[in-house]
Amino acid sequence: MSGLPKRILKETERLMSDSPPGISAAPKDDNLRHFDVTVAGPESSPYEGGIFKLELFLPEEYPMNPPKVRFLTKIYHPNIDKLGRICLDILKDKWSPALQIRTVLLSIQALLGAPNPDDPLANDVAQNWKENQSAAIEQAREWTRQYAQ
Amino acid sequence: MEIEEASPPISSKRSSPDLFFPVSDSEEEDVITASGALAGPSSSAVAPSSTATSSRANGHKTQSQSQRTNGKSAEIEFFGSQNSDDIIPLDTRPNASAGPSKIKRPLSQSPPAAIPSDFEQGYLGEFVCEGWSLSKGKGYCSPGSKVIFERPKIKVDEPVIKGNEKMGGPARLVNGKVVGTQKKAIGGKQVTLGSMMSKKAPPPAKKTVGKPVIDSIIRFRNDRGFEVGRLSVQEAGFLTHLLDTGVIALSGHVIDCPQSLSTGSTILLNVKVYLARKAFEKVEKDGRNKEEGSFWQEQKETTEEEAMRKRKDALGALFSRIGVKPIRSNALLLAQKKNGAAQINETSLQHFTDSPKPKRSPSPSKGSNASGGEKGKGKVSAANSDDEAEDEDSGDEAEKLDEEQMNEIDTIYRKAQQGDTRLEETNPPDTFLYTLRPYQKQALTWMSAREKGDESIRDNNSLHPLWEEYAFRKEQTVGQPIEIEDDDDFVDPSRKFYWNPYSGELSLAFPTSNTRAKGGILADAMGMGKTCMMASLIHANMDAEVSSTPPPVAEAEDEPANKRPKFKQVTLSNQWRAIPTVAKPVNVPRATLVVCPVSLASQWHDELGKMSEKGTITSFMWYGNDRVDIERLLAQEGKKKVDVIITSYGTLASEYQKWRKNKDKPTYEGGSLYDHEFLRIVLDEAHNIKNRTALVSKACYELKGQRRWALTGTPIVNRLDDLYSLLHFLRLEPWGHYSFFRSFVTIPFLNQDPKALNVVQYILESCLLRREKTMRDKDGKLIVDLPPKHVDIQVLDFSRPERQIYKHLEDRAKRRFIQLDAEGRAMSNYTSILAMLMKLRQCVDHPLLVLGKMNEDDEFAEKLLDAETGDESSNLKDLIALYAGGAKSADSEKEEVDHAFAAKVLRELGEQETTPICDICSNEMFDEVLLPCYHRCCQDCIVGWIGTCEDQNKPALCPSCSKGPIKLSDLRSIQRKRKRVNPLTGMSINENEEDQKDVVIGKVDLVQSTKLRALVRKLERMKSEDPTVKTLVFSQFTSFLDLIETTLTREGVKWLRFDGSMSQAQRATTIEEFGKKTKEPVVLLISLKAGGVGLNLTMANHVFMMDTWWNEAIEQQAIDRVHRLGQNKSVYVTRYIIKGTVEKRIMKIQRSKTALVNASLSGGGSKDKGASLADIKKIFGLDEDDSEDEVY
């Protein structure tokens, strides 16, 4: 564990012992900066019932720079693209070193509950969402059933 | 009958000593000898060899002939009259005849004893040799007939020979009876072999011979004087020189020949070889006693060397021809022979002896006058050329040992130590209060033995390493087969002789390696208690034994010559002089002189005091103004008695200068250290004299003392010559002679002759004791049980501002260097380049070390920053101003502040006991700062965040509330003042303001040092673990120590300071203060240079190395202040390295100690700038890819 900043150790410890509801995160054995993450789809969202896998990586500059997070599970969401990349401001320019892994994951979970098609990453999904929201939601449910259960 | 006939002469040879060679220790005596021989040739001149020869002949010849031969050969025999040559004033120098006692000292490699008076010659052996007939006809010779060998005479020597012949008188059969003169176009006259042989000094002969070197033909005649033939040059060429110089005598007889000779027909001869007395006499070569090194002298010197070399080669050939084998020789030599290394050695020397003249002649006086006593020594050994001595100064760099070689030397140390675990243990006397560890007791045994000259303690009463032992043979009795192989039967073990195959010298006395040097090198690794061991020795051997007081003969002889009036001239030769005894031997020397680095002087004083029972050993610090008249000081009795004088190298050097200047003046009153003979001289940290040309080294050489000790953990610092200087100080023969050392150690070593290491090992075995902490005693236990040492290399990251400042400096330095290099001016600006490097190294410690100066001194700043790019330097100045908090940014006020929150924070600040946790790093806040929004952070964290945002071109918002943007200048530091008074500075903090708030909100000091903060942080943590921890902090920059001081004071940490600017007394007080028991942690700030060596600081067990020094060994030394005997806690070493700076590359270079290191250490005066430039390129990362090991 040597060489790892105290902050990362502390965060990891807390994530393991006291994880936020619906979220789990554990570092990989071979790289303690690399986390396996699962996020449960929020209630009353099209993703409810799904368990989404993500990977999270803490760069060398963390916490000065944000962690890198990506969905591994396929998901139909206007702010998440085919490759699992997430459009979330705190992962970009709104990052603050006071934020933590925990807060990032909670934000992602919240994003699932509140898709924002006006700031899309997956353009086709966003368009569908805007034009035919119920169909889009149905699609999201379908994908959740198909890929996240 | 034949046997009987043969044996009496042999016995007579031994029993009638004065037959031909009465005691001859002087020229006069030689003359007497000669006349004696003249007087009674018939009575006693039964030359044993010839008799024997003739008896051999008897075996093959008829009786009658043998009788005749016998009778005649007695007359022919050359030995009897040989000495008559000595009358001839051929040889004006007081040379060999001056006698062995004189020879002894200057010519170290020569055995100490005289030639026994009864020795005339020794039978070496015989061999079969081919010869050719030069005559025609029958009756010249027949198998078994005796022959006489001779050498053609050299024309120039004619007058000499004539005189000789007259002297020789009727005894000479050959005189006038020259047969076949016409054939001897070259020689003209024939002489007796004896006269040829007795020609005393080869050099003059050589000189007169000049260019047309006489052929190497050896002719032989029959016993009637008719020339018969000559020996084959191939087979017997090597005899020529030996015959000419009188080293050997030959006799022989025909084994086989044609009945009737015709020119060129082969004659098989049996040649018997005898080593003549002459061989064991000193070959002339102490001409250097004459001070004026004239051109003439230089020449002569070389001729002698050449003669010696020829003799050496010839003897070597002869020995192998005859099949003479040493009955004893040094293992080392043996090994060398086996590998032909001796050969390499010879040829390399040959090279030197052959070539020097053209080089030398332009500067005839060089090397002999004031240019250094060392040079004079170059002439000591005939086997060497002093040319080397002249070259050596320029060859320094090349002689640096690389790492691999140093490793080899480590191995040697280890080998040399092998037997040491078996040393006996000696208990120190009761007056010595400390308890010695077993290995220290062993050292005491060894040291006592060394002082008493008892060599057996380590069983090296062995043959001198360069000598071989041989035995003369019994001459074979007639009738036995001529069998050269089974020589063992004929070896006469009672008659031995010794040969030095390196120098060609022969000796009859046993050349021991045992030298008269009393003392040695105690080279135990650092922290093993060398001081303690030496103190025990001082106790154990308080007085000089009576035996050592009478000065040896040689010295007594030399003394008058070297007395005052002539002193100025003799000073140089003083260098090799043996210990001169004090004029008034009434005062038996009993005092010990300890020379040590100034920082250790008081430690010696203290420790001697502590170790000694009251009133037994008193020491006196001979230092600064405390110097007094030495004789008076030491003459004090009773309470004021002084046993040990402690002085520093610096003091000694200045004293030496003064003494040199004044000693010849009539007004000189004496009283300096140099006017006293000490019982014992101890050099502590003796590697201080590793440079043999340094003044301080010379100052040490000149000290008078009976016993000499060098204490050092590193007898070889980085070149073999380092060892030489110690040996020279010890006066260890023969290695203490520079040319000798170079020829047998340095040069072969540089030629990568691995056997050179054997020699080193041999030397070390004989005079050096070294143990390491990791060594185990005979029971397998570690001899020193030191607590473990943990080294933690902390690789830190610059804070942003530091990085910027550093980068700026580095880029500039790099650019400047590239430019200079491109213009080819790098060499001439070498010093300024080194200065730039220095700046970088300082900047790594603390930016203020560089910046502060720039603000104060614009000119300096301009220089440093290179005025050509003025705008950039103003950038830097802005930068500095910015980070120093000087830049105004008043507009930060307009930010809205949550007043309620602010009030809460301020309240908290006043009340809270614990430090809050930083949101960014999750640690307790360190250097807590207040943001404009009243959120708090570590200074590092927020500065880092602001920097990151700048890099990404986004506003730096408060991490917690996203207000902002925040500027560095908006930050306010929060300092919780500690109510503490720094005990040393007496500076009080909040002394009168007890009731005021403890928290001060102030300007942020942004120009902080990463290292310094890391240190403070670590100290805080250590304090919580051990509230009384004592810590050493080393830095090479005292200015950095100043900054550390300030910070520690602010943090309320008690600190002490030790650096080179402090007086001896101050230093002592500091150490004492540091050793006191305290209730709080104490930090001792030490400058690496002043406190890196010698100090004993085992009260501390934490060491911080704040920066990287060029030489790792120095750092190791520093750490060993703590990790040494007496330390009973685990030792923790923390060293701080800043990532991505020069430090990493310095560490790299540190590992491959290269030229730059020297250049830096010597202040850029090195000649070897080319090599260091390459290093500078490396440091700037211009030369190589730095991709590997990016750890730092």
From TrEMBL, chain A:
Active site: 87
Top-rank EC class of the record's enzyme: transferase
InterPro entries to which the protein is assigned, alphabetical: UBC (IPR000608), UBQ-conjugating_AS (IPR023313), UBQ-conjugating_enzyme/RWD (IPR016135)
Domain UBC core: 3-149
EC number per UniProt: 2.3.2.23
Pfam families reported for this sequence: UQ_con
GO molecular function, one term: ubiquitin conjugating enzyme activity
UniProt keyword terms in alphabetical order: ATP-binding, Nucleotide-binding, Transferase, Ubl conjugation pathway
SMART domains per UniProt: UBCc (SM00212)
Record has ATP-binding as a keyword: yes
PANTHER family the UniProt entry points to: UBIQUITIN-CONJUGATING ENZYME E2
Similarity field: Belongs to the ubiquitin-conjugating enzyme family.
Protein's name in the database: E2 ubiquitin-conjugating enzyme
Originating species: Kwoniella dejecticola CBS 10117
UniProtKB/TrEMBL annotation, chain B:
Domain annotation Helicase C-terminal: ranges: 1011-1165
GO MF term set: ATP binding; ATP-dependent activity, acting on DNA; helicase activity; hydrolase activity, acting on acid anhydrides, in phosphorus-containing anhydrides; nucleic acid binding; zinc ion binding
Compartments, record wording: Nucleus
Regions of compositional bias (Polar residues) in chain numbering: 60-72
Span of domain Helicase ATP-binding: 511-733
Record's keyword annotation contains Zinc: yes
Residue numbers spanned by region Disordered: 1-115, 286-308, 347-406, 545-566
Chief place where the protein resides: nucleus
All copies of domain RING-type, residue ranges: 918-962
Protein name: DNA repair protein RAD5
UniProt xrefs under InterPro entries: Helicase_ATP-bd, Helicase_C-like, HIRAN, P-loop_NTPase, SNF2-like_sf, SNF2/RAD54-like_C, SNF2_N, SNF2_RAD54_helicase_TF
UniProt entry keywords in alphabetical sequence: ATP-binding, DNA damage, DNA repair, Helicase, Hydrolase, Metal-binding, Nucleotide-binding, Nucleus, Zinc, Zinc-finger
Biased amino acid composition, Low complexity: 34-57
Biological process annotations from GO: DNA repair
Biased composition (Acidic residues): 385-406
Highest taxon above the source species: Eukaryota
Gene Ontology CC terms: nucleus
Family the UniProt entry places it in: Belongs to the SNF2/RAD54 helicase family.
